[in-house]
Amino acid sequence: MKHKPNIPAFLLWEYDLKTFNYDKSYKIVIERVLERGTMENWKEIVSYYPIEKILETIDWSAQLQERDKNFSKLFLKSDYFNAV
Length: 84
Prior knowledge:
This protein is an all-alpha fold. It contains 5 helices and no strands. The protein has one domain (about 20-84).
């Protein structure tokens, strides 16, 4: 069984995290972290979700602004996460 990602409760404040399904609700988690998360939160989603799933969510999202989408794609494709 995969451990849930260590995402701060304030990013998902309106959900009951005891019953929250990080796999079914991945789009919510990814959007919140990309919008409001720290670098540690970014590392957490990258280690939990496949990069392809994160990139698909970025393209799908109506919540993220276009500049945030572009930055996120560029950053995720950079060497930063491979070097960590």
